[in-house]
């Protein structure tokens, strides 16, 4: 077993992802430009919910699609129409597997008109009224759902920024949220380019993607944080290299996560699109499938590169990088032996938490177990590693 | 050797999990009623079993959300209306800060569509009456749009009988009743709407122009000459003597209902080309202001109405009753204490024709003024006042039991504190619902199967742990659904099923995090026994942070969103929390136990040992990780 697959499996892919960040940024920029210009030129295909309209669904057993459509059109002509608005059939299609149903969409009707059409259908097809499904949405409803979604987006980003700043730091929060925006823009771009229909369910699906995208980024950043804690204490690795290592170490996990998340959503999409033909399942499935796929990409190729770039502006890490590079050059020249003793500065730079962790949280060999688990934030620190002398 | 901290006593954790299961399912079995099958059925949404749902959205003038207590009051009124209409078992809930959702699972009932319709009830004295002559300029005489709102004690056949409902026919006890002056039927006469209502879009909330701005627009639209002519009108022009008036004012007939609404009541009334069709289609609440005069229609009659002196909230009760003296059906009306005072004052004013003069055209047969009962933008009844009413009052007329009860129900529950528009209607047939349910379950099944296949393929025997965890999660979710359905009325809908399916990925992911960690540890040369607790401690942190994000997303979605998506968010959040429970109480202890077996590191069994195949003979990749260096 060798090759990329094995290396991936072992977490040793050793791909230089962050080093090539210019490529990824270019890719992202191109995608964003394409998406934005598509918004401008092509716009979006808005579903029935945004324009408002009615939908009638009858079992396919009533006859041909043409017959069903004609019947609805005729019923619309006969429906009471005091304000003289043009009523018509917007689309008619057969949906669903098996016998399926006919889905006929019309312009927006008043409740009286909808009731009249339904009554006409009952008469024309000779089926009971409760076998006819009908629904109506007003344009303001679609707008309300979208407004709500936007509000949700703003609140969510605010809450999550706060959480990430507390849990990590502001640079990670910024990197995570910028990758989130990238996901949203590209997902919307795909929708605009392909012309997928946007419904309120789609809009809400976007919000779910946010959760997933951040979830993924958090896992990667968690590893980055672990790898780079106390990094300035030694001079063997720059921040960028440590971050790159973290991405490589979590690469297999990112791919696995992406797969296990996409598999059920794929099932959802399959059922929604092929068996039901329309509705919440399909709309949600599609947006989640597209968005999650992009989220996996951006958590690897965008979030961490952005983080490394931000960190590159920090004087502390700039100086550290220079020190590491200078030391490497020195080793290359043979001035310094690679196994140099630790720099005297190091103890001073160890964080207090680490010291505390070393002092208290690490289990002593042979210590009597206590009921308490070590606090999560301590035990995860590298400093918690038991001494080499521990028996296995 | 004693196990290190953080992983001891797997048995205890499993016992806690077992206890949770026992308690949950005890509640499931003991809490419900009916047969065993009933108790094991979660509450399903109407998109899964068929039914009707109507969403009403409150419209306010400024576009801002209404007050919570007003919304709640409206909800109660709609609920009592549902019961009054005989739509039993309808569930009426508020959603978000401006929606009221009426749903009826299992069967569809079109009556739901009427529940939010009636808006605000006002009693206004009729000042002037004129015929809707807008039809004179229109080519097609379609019947006017008064529709279902008028009780129309149809005057076609019984013109004389109904028009003179004498005082004797209204034995209100306290000096006469209120007689409904029925509207003459349109009878195909000139009552057509010339209004090209394509432009009849109500002004969107939030983006509203002010009334003045709209009026300025109208002024431009109709032209200076027509505007001046309209402003000069003191009364509706007599079309028989002045036929040019129609052509001069023709432009007014093309205004949208919102534009008509911006005009002064006097102008709305006086300009003959403004028709009832336009007036009736004004945005809900257009004439709710009690301190302003208003114009509204009853059938083909356009009426100028005084300020509202009695409101719907003043009515305490109304019912359709069979008149004791054989007069047929009448509507009896009770007022609240303060309402009664206002009503007495209003009837005195109308009876004596005091205060704002009521025009000769507006007098009833007895020469008394009429009082219009205005619901929303239309007049539902305009009885002539036959006495100063100090007690119970009656509206008489040519009612049937149905029309009398309808009017009574409108009077009784008409006082919605808010105006509503019907924003979404859904009628799902039972067969379609069943199909949706099957499809949803199939999607969930396929999702679960794919994840499990992948888990076995990638993690070999460890896949069993994933498999068992997902089963346990599923059982927990199922139990929780039943209990929550009973306790807080949570109904599982299609969107909810999607939420659970999406959460499958989240649940499986926490394994990936853990197992990949485990591989890291083993790669570093650790034994299974020590790798498991170490990997656990580190993975736990990541899992909690990552799941916290999902839960945050679910909570924000749940609080903010409207419609079926709420169910989606709830399901996602619930499943994520239950997943955490399973992670802590099942997976961790089971892995601890598993790590004590010999088979654990066998590549064929766990798929974990595989990372060692190549590395065991060489040194275990030391320079790669900073942690190793620090050690």
From TrEMBL, chain A:
<feature type="compositionally biased region" description="Low complexity">
    <location>
        <begin position="377"/>
        <end position="386"/>
    </location>
</feature>
<keyword id="KW-1133">Transmembrane helix</keyword>
<dbReference type="GO" id="GO:0006605">
    <property type="term" value="P:protein targeting"/>
</dbReference>
<dbReference type="GO" id="GO:0015450">
    <property type="term" value="F:protein-transporting ATPase activity"/>
</dbReference>
<feature type="transmembrane region" description="Helical">
    <location>
        <begin position="202"/>
        <end position="221"/>
    </location>
</feature>
<protein>
    <recommendedName>
        <fullName>Protein-export membrane protein SecF</fullName>
    </recommendedName>
</protein>
<feature type="transmembrane region" description="Helical">
    <location>
        <begin position="23"/>
        <end position="41"/>
    </location>
</feature>
<dbReference type="GO" id="GO:0043952">
    <property type="term" value="P:protein transport by the Sec complex"/>
</dbReference>
<comment type="similarity">
    <text>Belongs to the SecD/SecF family. SecF subfamily.</text>
</comment>
<dbReference type="GO" id="GO:0005886">
    <property type="term" value="C:plasma membrane"/>
</dbReference>
<dbReference type="InterPro" id="IPR022645">
    <property type="entry name" value="SecD/SecF_bac"/>
</dbReference>
<feature type="domain" description="Protein export membrane protein SecD/SecF C-terminal">
    <location>
        <begin position="124"/>
        <end position="311"/>
    </location>
</feature>
<dbReference type="GO" id="GO:0065002">
    <property type="term" value="P:intracellular protein transmembrane transport"/>
</dbReference>
<dbReference type="InterPro" id="IPR022646">
    <property type="entry name" value="SecD/SecF_CS"/>
</dbReference>
<dbReference type="InterPro" id="IPR022813">
    <property type="entry name" value="SecD/SecF_arch_bac"/>
</dbReference>
<dbReference type="InterPro" id="IPR005665">
    <property type="entry name" value="SecF_bac"/>
</dbReference>
<comment type="function">
    <text>Part of the Sec protein translocase complex. Interacts with the SecYEG preprotein conducting channel. SecDF uses the proton motive force (PMF) to complete protein translocation after the ATP-dependent function of SecA.</text>
</comment>
<keyword id="KW-0472">Membrane</keyword>
<dbReference type="InterPro" id="IPR048634">
    <property type="entry name" value="SecD_SecF_C"/>
</dbReference>
<keyword id="KW-0653">Protein transport</keyword>
<feature type="region of interest" description="Disordered">
    <location>
        <begin position="333"/>
        <end position="392"/>
    </location>
</feature>
<dbReference type="Pfam" id="PF07549">
    <property type="entry name" value="Sec_GG"/>
</dbReference>
Automatic annotation (TrEMBL), chain B:
<feature type="domain" description="Protein export membrane protein SecD/SecF C-terminal">
    <location>
        <begin position="421"/>
        <end position="594"/>
    </location>
</feature>
<keyword id="KW-0811">Translocation</keyword>
<keyword id="KW-1003">Cell membrane</keyword>
<feature type="domain" description="Protein translocase subunit SecDF P1">
    <location>
        <begin position="72"/>
        <end position="126"/>
    </location>
</feature>
<feature type="transmembrane region" description="Helical">
    <location>
        <begin position="465"/>
        <end position="484"/>
    </location>
</feature>
<dbReference type="InterPro" id="IPR054384">
    <property type="entry name" value="SecDF_P1_head"/>
</dbReference>
<dbReference type="InterPro" id="IPR005791">
    <property type="entry name" value="SecD"/>
</dbReference>
<dbReference type="Pfam" id="PF22599">
    <property type="entry name" value="SecDF_P1_head"/>
</dbReference>
<dbReference type="GO" id="GO:0065002">
    <property type="term" value="P:intracellular protein transmembrane transport"/>
</dbReference>
<comment type="subunit">
    <text>Forms a complex with SecF. Part of the essential Sec protein translocation apparatus which comprises SecA, SecYEG and auxiliary proteins SecDF. Other proteins may also be involved.</text>
</comment>
<dbReference type="GO" id="GO:0005886">
    <property type="term" value="C:plasma membrane"/>
</dbReference>
<keyword id="KW-0813">Transport</keyword>
<feature type="transmembrane region" description="Helical">
    <location>
        <begin position="567"/>
        <end position="586"/>
    </location>
</feature>
<dbReference type="InterPro" id="IPR048634">
    <property type="entry name" value="SecD_SecF_C"/>
</dbReference>
<comment type="similarity">
    <text>Belongs to the SecD/SecF family. SecD subfamily.</text>
</comment>
<dbReference type="Pfam" id="PF21760">
    <property type="entry name" value="SecD_1st"/>
</dbReference>
<keyword id="KW-1133">Transmembrane helix</keyword>
<feature type="transmembrane region" description="Helical">
    <location>
        <begin position="436"/>
        <end position="458"/>
    </location>
</feature>
<feature type="domain" description="SecDF P1 head subdomain">
    <location>
        <begin position="303"/>
        <end position="417"/>
    </location>
</feature>
<feature type="region of interest" description="Disordered">
    <location>
        <begin position="133"/>
        <end position="207"/>
    </location>
</feature>
<feature type="transmembrane region" description="Helical">
    <location>
        <begin position="543"/>
        <end position="561"/>
    </location>
</feature>
<dbReference type="GO" id="GO:0006605">
    <property type="term" value="P:protein targeting"/>
</dbReference>
